[in-house]
Specification:
Elements: E1 15-21, H1 26-36, E2 44-49, H2 56-63, E3 68-71, H3 77-86, E4 94-98, E5 102-104, H4 108-118, E6 122-131, E7 134-140, E8 143-145, E9 151-153, E10 167-169, E11 176-180, H5 181-187, H6 199-209, E12 213-224, H7 235-252, H8 255-278, H9 282-294, H10 296-308, H11 314-319, H12 327-337, E13 364-368, H13 379-389, E14 394-397, E15 408-414, E16 417-422, H14 436-453, E17 458-462, H15 468-478, E18 482-486, H16 498-501, H17 504-510, E19 513-516, H18 519-525, E20 532-534, H19 541-544, E21 556-560, H20 569-578, E22 583-587, H21 596-599, E23 604-608, H22 615-621, E24 624-627, H23 633-636, H24 641-649, E25 653-655, H25 659-662, E26 669-670, H26 674-684, H27 690-701, H28 705-717
Parallel strand pairs: 1-2, 1-4, 2-3, 6-12, 13-14, 13-17, 14-16, 17-18, 18-19, 19-20, 21-22, 21-24, 22-23, 24-25, 25-26
Antiparallel strand pairs: 4-11, 5-12, 6-7, 6-11, 8-9, 10-12, 15-16
Amino acid sequence: MTRGATSPYGVRLKIAVIVVNWNGGDLLRRCLESITGQERPPARVIVADNASQDGSLEAALRLFPWVEPLRLPANVGFAAANNAALEQCGDCDWIALLNPDAFAAPSWLARLAAAAGDHPEYAMFASQMRLAEDIARLDGAGDVYHVSGLVWRAGHGQPAPPADAPREVFSPCAAAALYRRDALADVGGFDERYFCYLEDVDLGFRLRLRGHRCLYVPDAVVHHVGSGMTGKASDFSTYHGHRNLVWTFVKDMPAPLLALYLPQHLLANAASLAWFTARGRGRVLARAKWHALRGLPAMLRARRRVQATRRVGARELRRVMARGWRTPYRARGRRDASPSPAPPAAAPPPAPASAPAVTLERHDVLCLPIIDWDFRFQRPQQLLSQFADAGHRVFYVNITFREDGPPYRLTGKRPGVQEVSLRAPPRSVYTDALDGGARDALFAGLDAMRRDLGLGPTATFVNLPFWWPLAGRLREAFGWPVIYDCMDYHAGFSVIRPEMLAQEGALLESADQVVVSSAFLEAAARKHTARVLRLPNAGEYERFALPLKTRGEPPVIGYYGALEDWIDTDLVADVAERRRDWRFVLVGRPVSADVSRLARLPHVSLPGEQPYPAIPGWLHQFDVAIIPFKRTPLTEATDPVKAYEMLASGKPIVAVPIPEVVALGRLVRLASTAEEFERAIADALRPEDAELVEARRAFAREHTWRKRFETLAPATRATFGRR
C-alpha cells in the first residue's frame, strides 16, 4: 500500500506506520485490518517482527501482501525493534507507531495528519486511546509525567468525553502516536536498554529536552487492548515499568528539578514497594528497583549526554509536568472509583424518556436485509453507514432468527448501527414465504424494541421481498414508510425460491419508494409503480485510490468478490491456460462456482474470502483487474460495486459487456471470449496514458457512497406522510 507524498491537508506528509509484533496472533490481523481501512492510507506499513513463533507474521502477510516485513533474529524488544524499522524509513517525513493490540478508527491517521499540518510547532501527537473491552471508556489521552517520576495515562478508565479539544500533553503513548521523523533522529530514537515499557515516556522526555512539544488529538481514536502480548499487570510488565521509571527520572530530569523532587521520587518508590509487598508481589518490585540501581552508572553517563544537548529550561519542563504530593494517588483513586458499566441486558430496559429526540431530519432507520451485516460489506452496509454518520440510529435485522431468549437483542456493529437479533420461528429469507406466525413474532420483537428505545419516525428499508408482510405490518401499525431497495434481479439467484419471490409484485406496487441500482431493474420496477428512484452503486474513493504500483513480472491479473455460479470460471481458466506467463489471483470464498480447473493451475491463486478492509491491498497488487461474469439475467441487471472501486484505483479493467459496464465507455475494455480477454489484458498491460488513469479516478470521485446518500436522504424523508 502506498500513498504519494503530497498530503490533502496542505502540507507534505509522507507517513510510515510501524507495528512491532511478538507472537501477536489474531491481534496483529485486527491491527493491520484497521490500518487497511484508513481514510488516509499511509505511504508504508512496516511490521517489525521480534522472532515470533506463532505464525502471526506469515498469516498477516497472506492477508495483507502490501505489508513490509522486517524479520528480526531474536526478541530485541519494543525499543530496538522500532529503531530498526526507523532506519528503513528515510523516505518518510512522519512516523506513526501502532501496537498490534491497538485498532485504529478509520479516521485515525487522517486526524493525526491534519493536526500535524495545522500545528507545525508540535513534533509529537498523541491519540485518544479507548479501552477495547469498553470503548465508552478511555485507556488514555496522552501520558502524564509527575515530578516524582511516576507516570500514568491521562483519563485512564474514565468515561470518554462526548466532546474534547486538542491540548498539549507531556508525551504520547507510543501504542498509537505520530512523530516527526527528523525529531526522532534528533534524539537518536528509543533507548534500547529499556527493552519495553516507559521507553516511550523516556523518548518523549528527551524530545521535550530538545524543545519538541506534544499535542493530544482527541478525534484520532484507537481501541487498545493493553499489554495484549505481555499480560496486564504481569510480572514482566511490572518489572520493566518500575525499573525504567527510575532510569527515566535519573537520566532525563534537569538538575534543578532533580534536586528539588528527589525526595518525592524516593518516597514514591518506597510507597510502590510497600504497596506491592502488601499484595504479595514485593519480590518483583524489589528486583526491578535493584536492577535499576545496578544500571545507574550507565544512566548517569547517558544523563551527561542528554543534559548537554538540552535546549529547554527547567521552568518550561516543570510547566508540563503534574505536581503535588497527592496527585498520583488521587489520579489512581479516580480510576479505581470510576463506576463500571452495568452488564448488558438481553434487551435494554424501557427508557423512552431518555431516548434522543427523533425528527424527520434525524429519523431512525430499520433495515430488513438480504445478508447479515458481517457477511460481506456491500451496498446495504455502505448506505446505512452513511445514515449513521449523519446522525440517524440504524437498526439492522439479522436474517437468522432465534427460537428462545428475549424478543430482541442488540449488538453494536459500528457507531450508530445496531444489529437486531429477533426471536421467531426459523425461516429462510431466501426460500420461504413469511407466514403469519413468523411475521407476528418478528413484529412483537420490533415493537418491544420500539417502545424500549423510543423509536419515532422510522424508515423501513427492505432488501428482499421475503420481508414485505412484516414491513407492511409495521407501516400499518406505526406509519413507518417502506423503501424497497432493489439491487439485484432476485430470480437470477440459484438459492432463491419462487415462494419468496411471489411477494415482490405486491412490494413493488405498495412501497412508498422503490430504489433500484441499474437501468434493467428500473425498467422492471416501472411496470409496477411510478415511484422509482434509480440510485446506481458507488465506491469508497479514498479507500481504494492508492497510487499505481510499479508493474512487476509476472504481471498479476486479478478479481475479487463472490465466487458464485454467475462467475465464468471456465472463461478465466481458458485465459490462464493460454497465458502461463501471467499470474492470476481470484480473491473470494468459492461457494457455487466450480473452481476445480483453476485450482489445478500453478500460476492461479485462490486466497479465499478476505475482510473488506483488506481488499484495497489486494487490488493494489493487480496489474489488470477483471470482471468475468457470465451473461445471465442476473448479471445483466447488475451494477458491479467493484467496478467503481477498481476505477478509483486507476487500474485498467477488462470486463464482459454487461449493460452497466458498457455504459462506462472508454474507462473499461470489453471482452466476451477467452481470445478477446487475452488480447484486452495484453493491451492493458502496455504503458498507459496518465490522462486515462486520471479519467478513471475522476469518474470514481464523482460516484461515491456519500454522493449517493445525498440523493437518497431527501428521497427517504419525502416518504413520511406520503400515505
